[in-house]
Amino acid sequence: MTKKDILQTAREVLDTEARAVAGLADKLDDAFLATVDLLARARTRVIVIGMGKSGLVGRKIAATLASCGTPAVFIHPAEAGHGDLGIVQKNDVVLAISYSGQTREIVDLLDFLKRLGVRMVAITGNRNSRIARYSDIVLDAGVEREAGPGRLIPTASSTAALALGDALAIAVMRRKGLDERAFGSTHPKGQLGRRALTVDALMHRGAKIPRVAPATRMKAAIEEMTAKKIGMTCIIDAGNRLLGIITDGDLRLLLRRHGGSLLAKTAGACMTANPVTVPRNRLATEALNLMEERHITSLVVVEEDGRVGGVIHLHDLWRTEMF
Asked: Same domain, yes or no, for 73 and 13?
Protein backbone atom coordinates (compact mmCIF):
# COMPACT_ATOMS: atom_id res chain seq x y z
CA MET A 1 0.00 0.00 0.00
CA THR A 2 1.52 3.30 -1.07
CA LYS A 3 1.61 6.51 0.95
CA LYS A 4 -0.97 7.93 -1.41
CA ASP A 5 -3.27 4.95 -0.76
CA ILE A 6 -2.90 5.35 2.99
CA LEU A 7 -3.79 9.03 2.88
CA GLN A 8 -6.72 8.34 0.57
CA THR A 9 -8.05 5.70 2.97
CA ALA A 10 -7.82 8.10 5.88
CA ARG A 11 -9.61 10.82 3.92
CA GLU A 12 -12.39 8.41 2.99
CA VAL A 13 -12.87 7.44 6.63
CA LEU A 14 -13.01 11.06 7.74
CA ASP A 15 -15.39 11.96 4.92
CA THR A 16 -17.70 9.04 5.75
CA GLU A 17 -17.79 9.91 9.42
CA ALA A 18 -18.26 13.63 8.75
CA ARG A 19 -21.25 12.89 6.53
CA ALA A 20 -22.67 10.56 9.17
CA VAL A 21 -22.53 13.29 11.81
CA ALA A 22 -23.86 15.96 9.45
CA GLY A 23 -26.77 13.68 8.57
CA LEU A 24 -27.95 13.65 12.17
CA ALA A 25 -29.06 17.29 11.94
CA ASP A 26 -31.93 16.38 9.62
CA LYS A 27 -33.05 13.64 12.02
CA LEU A 28 -33.50 15.92 15.02
CA ASP A 29 -37.21 16.07 15.75
CA ASP A 30 -39.75 16.00 18.56
CA ALA A 31 -38.07 12.90 19.98
CA PHE A 32 -34.88 14.89 20.57
CA LEU A 33 -36.87 17.71 22.19
CA ALA A 34 -38.66 15.21 24.43
CA THR A 35 -35.33 13.65 25.44
CA VAL A 36 -33.85 17.02 26.36
CA ASP A 37 -36.90 17.81 28.47
CA LEU A 38 -36.79 14.38 30.13
CA LEU A 39 -33.09 14.64 31.02
CA ALA A 40 -33.45 18.22 32.23
CA ARG A 41 -36.26 17.20 34.59
CA ALA A 42 -34.60 14.00 35.83
CA ARG A 43 -34.86 13.97 39.62
CA THR A 44 -31.97 11.58 40.21
CA ARG A 45 -29.51 10.45 37.52
CA VAL A 46 -29.09 9.41 33.94
CA ILE A 47 -27.94 5.79 33.68
CA VAL A 48 -26.04 5.18 30.43
CA ILE A 49 -25.62 1.62 29.16
CA GLY A 50 -23.93 0.15 26.09
CA MET A 51 -21.73 -2.76 25.02
CA GLY A 52 -18.47 -2.83 23.09
CA LYS A 53 -17.81 0.36 21.12
CA SER A 54 -21.23 1.65 22.16
CA GLY A 55 -20.17 1.15 25.76
CA LEU A 56 -17.06 3.24 25.24
CA VAL A 57 -19.20 5.94 23.64
CA GLY A 58 -21.61 5.63 26.57
CA ARG A 59 -18.84 6.27 29.09
CA LYS A 60 -17.96 9.47 27.30
CA ILE A 61 -21.60 10.60 27.06
CA ALA A 62 -22.10 9.96 30.78
CA ALA A 63 -18.95 11.93 31.58
CA THR A 64 -20.03 14.83 29.36
CA LEU A 65 -23.52 14.95 30.86
CA ALA A 66 -22.07 14.99 34.37
CA SER A 67 -19.55 17.71 33.57
CA CYS A 68 -22.32 19.83 32.06
CA GLY A 69 -24.49 19.69 35.18
CA THR A 70 -26.61 16.56 34.65
CA PRO A 71 -25.69 13.73 37.07
CA ALA A 72 -24.95 10.63 35.00
CA VAL A 73 -23.17 7.31 35.43
CA PHE A 74 -22.24 4.49 33.08
CA ILE A 75 -23.20 0.90 33.90
CA HIS A 76 -21.78 -2.03 31.96
CA PRO A 77 -24.77 -4.15 30.84
CA ALA A 78 -22.97 -7.44 31.45
CA GLU A 79 -22.10 -6.40 35.00
CA ALA A 80 -25.58 -5.00 35.58
CA GLY A 81 -27.08 -8.51 35.79
CA HIS A 82 -24.60 -9.41 38.49
CA GLY A 83 -25.49 -6.72 41.01
CA ASP A 84 -24.81 -3.35 39.41
CA LEU A 85 -28.51 -2.90 38.67
CA GLY A 86 -28.84 -2.09 42.34
CA ILE A 87 -27.71 1.42 41.52
CA VAL A 88 -30.75 2.06 39.30
CA GLN A 89 -33.62 3.88 41.01
CA LYS A 90 -37.20 4.39 39.93
CA ASN A 91 -36.77 8.06 39.04
CA ASP A 92 -33.63 7.51 36.96
CA VAL A 93 -33.57 7.85 33.19
CA VAL A 94 -31.82 5.07 31.26
CA LEU A 95 -30.01 6.01 28.06
CA ALA A 96 -29.34 2.82 26.08
CA ILE A 97 -26.87 2.91 23.18
CA SER A 98 -27.08 0.07 20.67
CA TYR A 99 -26.74 0.55 16.94
CA SER A 100 -28.44 -2.75 16.13
CA GLY A 101 -30.98 -2.29 18.89
CA GLN A 102 -30.64 -6.02 19.61
CA THR A 103 -27.61 -6.12 21.92
CA ARG A 104 -28.24 -9.24 23.99
CA GLU A 105 -26.77 -7.90 27.25
CA ILE A 106 -29.14 -4.91 27.10
CA VAL A 107 -32.14 -6.91 25.91
CA ASP A 108 -31.75 -9.14 28.96
CA LEU A 109 -32.22 -6.07 31.20
CA LEU A 110 -35.34 -4.68 29.54
CA ASP A 111 -37.97 -6.52 31.59
CA PHE A 112 -36.25 -5.61 34.84
CA LEU A 113 -36.01 -1.94 33.86
CA LYS A 114 -39.68 -1.89 32.88
CA ARG A 115 -40.71 -3.43 36.19
CA LEU A 116 -38.65 -0.84 38.00
CA GLY A 117 -40.53 1.89 36.16
CA VAL A 118 -37.61 3.93 34.83
CA ARG A 119 -37.99 6.02 31.69
CA MET A 120 -35.80 4.80 28.85
CA VAL A 121 -34.27 6.49 25.80
CA ALA A 122 -32.62 4.51 23.01
CA ILE A 123 -29.88 5.80 20.70
CA THR A 124 -30.00 3.31 17.84
CA GLY A 125 -29.81 2.81 14.12
CA ASN A 126 -32.78 0.42 14.14
CA ARG A 127 -36.09 2.00 15.14
CA ASN A 128 -37.86 -1.37 14.84
CA SER A 129 -35.51 -3.23 17.17
CA ARG A 130 -36.47 -4.75 20.50
CA ILE A 131 -34.60 -2.11 22.51
CA ALA A 132 -36.33 0.64 20.50
CA ARG A 133 -39.78 -0.92 21.13
CA TYR A 134 -39.13 -1.05 24.88
CA SER A 135 -37.98 2.56 25.01
CA ASP A 136 -40.14 5.58 25.78
CA ILE A 137 -38.18 7.69 23.28
CA VAL A 138 -36.09 6.59 20.30
CA LEU A 139 -33.32 8.75 18.85
CA ASP A 140 -32.38 7.76 15.31
CA ALA A 141 -28.59 7.57 14.98
CA GLY A 142 -28.61 5.55 11.77
CA VAL A 143 -25.81 6.10 9.26
CA GLU A 144 -25.57 5.40 5.55
CA ARG A 145 -22.57 3.12 5.98
CA GLU A 146 -19.58 2.37 8.17
CA ALA A 147 -16.14 3.57 7.14
CA GLY A 148 -14.05 0.42 7.50
CA PRO A 149 -13.48 -2.58 5.23
CA GLY A 150 -16.65 -4.54 4.60
CA ARG A 151 -18.65 -1.71 6.15
CA LEU A 152 -18.84 -3.77 9.36
CA ILE A 153 -16.45 -2.10 11.81
CA PRO A 154 -18.27 0.40 14.09
CA THR A 155 -16.82 3.70 12.92
CA ALA A 156 -19.34 6.14 11.47
CA SER A 157 -22.09 4.74 13.71
CA SER A 158 -20.11 5.12 16.93
CA THR A 159 -19.00 8.61 15.90
CA ALA A 160 -22.61 9.55 15.18
CA ALA A 161 -23.77 8.24 18.57
CA LEU A 162 -20.99 10.18 20.29
CA ALA A 163 -21.94 13.40 18.49
CA LEU A 164 -25.60 12.90 19.31
CA GLY A 165 -24.67 12.45 22.96
CA ASP A 166 -22.73 15.71 22.90
CA ALA A 167 -25.71 17.47 21.33
CA LEU A 168 -27.92 16.15 24.11
CA ALA A 169 -25.51 17.21 26.87
CA ILE A 170 -25.17 20.78 25.62
CA ALA A 171 -28.88 21.15 24.84
CA VAL A 172 -29.82 19.88 28.31
CA MET A 173 -27.27 22.21 29.89
CA ARG A 174 -28.83 25.21 28.16
CA ARG A 175 -32.37 23.94 28.86
CA LYS A 176 -31.46 23.98 32.58
CA GLY A 177 -30.12 27.51 32.30
CA LEU A 178 -26.54 26.51 33.06
CA ASP A 179 -23.46 28.13 31.54
CA GLU A 180 -19.67 27.92 31.57
CA ARG A 181 -19.66 28.74 35.28
CA ALA A 182 -21.53 25.52 35.99
CA PHE A 183 -19.00 23.67 33.86
CA GLY A 184 -16.19 25.31 35.78
CA SER A 185 -17.67 24.20 39.11
CA THR A 186 -17.25 20.55 38.07
CA HIS A 187 -13.66 21.09 36.88
CA PRO A 188 -11.87 22.74 39.82
CA LYS A 189 -8.54 21.07 38.99
CA GLY A 190 -8.51 21.39 35.22
CA GLN A 191 -7.35 24.13 32.89
CA LEU A 192 -10.88 24.50 31.51
CA GLY A 193 -12.30 24.85 34.99
CA ARG A 194 -9.78 27.52 35.92
CA ARG A 195 -10.74 29.49 32.84
CA ALA A 196 -14.37 29.35 33.98
CA LEU A 197 -13.59 30.75 37.43
CA THR A 198 -15.50 33.87 38.40
CA VAL A 199 -14.26 36.95 40.18
CA ASP A 200 -16.23 35.87 43.24
CA ALA A 201 -14.04 32.77 43.63
CA LEU A 202 -10.79 34.74 43.69
CA MET A 203 -11.51 38.12 45.26
CA HIS A 204 -10.39 39.37 48.68
CA ARG A 205 -13.38 39.81 50.92
CA GLY A 206 -14.44 40.80 54.42
CA ALA A 207 -11.67 42.06 56.66
CA LYS A 208 -9.11 41.57 53.87
CA ILE A 209 -10.60 44.44 51.86
CA PRO A 210 -8.62 47.69 52.30
CA ARG A 211 -11.08 50.51 52.95
CA VAL A 212 -11.21 53.84 54.73
CA ALA A 213 -13.71 56.65 55.18
CA PRO A 214 -13.33 59.85 53.11
CA ALA A 215 -12.41 61.84 56.23
CA THR A 216 -9.49 59.51 57.03
CA ARG A 217 -6.09 61.25 56.95
CA MET A 218 -3.74 60.03 54.26
CA LYS A 219 -1.26 58.77 56.84
CA ALA A 220 -3.87 56.30 58.11
CA ALA A 221 -4.98 55.49 54.56
CA ILE A 222 -1.41 54.55 53.60
CA GLU A 223 -1.15 52.37 56.70
CA GLU A 224 -4.35 50.57 55.62
CA MET A 225 -2.91 49.99 52.16
CA THR A 226 0.31 48.65 53.65
CA ALA A 227 -1.50 46.33 56.06
CA LYS A 228 -3.80 44.79 53.41
CA LYS A 229 -1.01 44.36 50.82
CA ILE A 230 -3.13 44.83 47.70
CA GLY A 231 -1.60 48.10 46.58
CA MET A 232 -4.77 50.17 46.93
CA THR A 233 -7.58 51.11 49.26
CA CYS A 234 -11.27 51.73 48.74
CA ILE A 235 -12.87 54.95 49.95
CA ILE A 236 -16.35 54.13 51.25
CA ASP A 237 -19.29 55.95 52.82
CA ALA A 238 -21.08 54.91 56.00
CA GLY A 239 -23.09 52.33 54.07
CA ASN A 240 -19.99 50.63 52.60
CA ARG A 241 -20.75 52.10 49.17
CA LEU A 242 -17.78 52.84 46.96
CA LEU A 243 -16.84 56.52 46.56
CA GLY A 244 -13.38 56.11 45.05
CA ILE A 245 -9.97 54.48 45.36
CA ILE A 246 -6.33 55.35 46.00
CA THR A 247 -3.62 53.16 44.49
CA ASP A 248 0.16 52.92 44.88
CA GLY A 249 0.45 54.69 41.55
CA ASP A 250 -1.79 57.50 42.81
CA LEU A 251 0.49 57.94 45.85
CA ARG A 252 3.53 58.62 43.67
CA LEU A 253 1.64 61.30 41.76
CA LEU A 254 0.24 62.80 44.95
CA LEU A 255 3.69 62.96 46.57
CA ARG A 256 5.06 64.86 43.59
CA ARG A 257 2.17 67.28 43.76
CA HIS A 258 1.87 67.80 47.52
CA GLY A 259 5.15 66.66 49.02
CA GLY A 260 5.20 66.33 52.79
CA SER A 261 1.80 67.97 53.18
CA LEU A 262 0.13 64.90 51.65
CA LEU A 263 -0.06 63.04 54.97
CA ALA A 264 -2.32 65.72 56.44
CA LYS A 265 -4.83 65.58 53.60
CA THR A 266 -7.94 63.37 53.66
CA ALA A 267 -8.51 60.25 51.58
CA GLY A 268 -11.64 61.85 50.12
CA ALA A 269 -9.63 64.78 48.80
CA CYS A 270 -7.02 62.51 47.21
CA MET A 271 -9.12 59.66 45.85
CA THR A 272 -9.92 58.84 42.23
CA ALA A 273 -13.70 58.96 42.00
CA ASN A 274 -15.76 56.54 39.85
CA PRO A 275 -13.04 53.91 39.46
CA VAL A 276 -13.32 50.89 37.19
CA THR A 277 -15.30 48.15 38.94
CA VAL A 278 -16.49 44.65 38.19
CA PRO A 279 -19.47 42.50 39.36
CA ARG A 280 -18.72 39.36 41.33
CA ASN A 281 -20.20 37.03 38.70
CA ARG A 282 -17.87 38.22 35.93
CA LEU A 283 -15.45 35.61 34.59
CA ALA A 284 -11.91 35.98 35.90
CA THR A 285 -10.66 36.00 32.30
CA GLU A 286 -12.87 39.01 31.60
CA ALA A 287 -11.51 40.78 34.68
CA LEU A 288 -7.96 40.19 33.45
CA ASN A 289 -8.81 41.60 30.02
CA LEU A 290 -10.31 44.66 31.68
CA MET A 291 -7.18 45.22 33.77
CA GLU A 292 -4.98 44.92 30.71
CA GLU A 293 -7.13 47.31 28.69
CA ARG A 294 -7.12 49.93 31.45
CA HIS A 295 -3.49 49.31 32.52
CA ILE A 296 -4.50 48.73 36.15
CA THR A 297 -3.62 46.01 38.65
CA SER A 298 -6.76 45.75 40.77
CA LEU A 299 -10.53 46.00 40.48
CA VAL A 300 -13.12 46.71 43.14
CA VAL A 301 -15.97 44.22 43.14
CA VAL A 302 -19.26 46.01 43.69
CA GLU A 303 -22.72 44.70 44.44
CA GLU A 304 -25.83 45.89 42.59
CA ASP A 305 -26.51 48.50 45.26
CA GLY A 306 -22.99 49.94 45.02
CA ARG A 307 -21.63 48.33 48.18
CA VAL A 308 -18.07 47.00 48.12
CA GLY A 309 -18.10 43.21 47.97
CA GLY A 310 -14.41 42.57 47.42
CA VAL A 311 -11.22 43.43 45.58
CA ILE A 312 -9.43 41.33 42.97
CA HIS A 313 -5.76 41.89 42.15
CA LEU A 314 -3.77 40.92 39.09
CA HIS A 315 -1.64 38.58 41.19
CA ASP A 316 -4.77 36.68 42.25
CA LEU A 317 -5.39 35.88 38.59
CA TRP A 318 -1.80 34.93 37.87
CA ARG A 319 -1.77 32.47 40.76
CA THR A 320 -4.49 30.40 39.08
CA GLU A 321 -2.06 29.61 36.24
CA MET A 322 -4.96 29.83 33.79
CA PHE A 323 -3.15 32.33 31.57
From this structure: yes
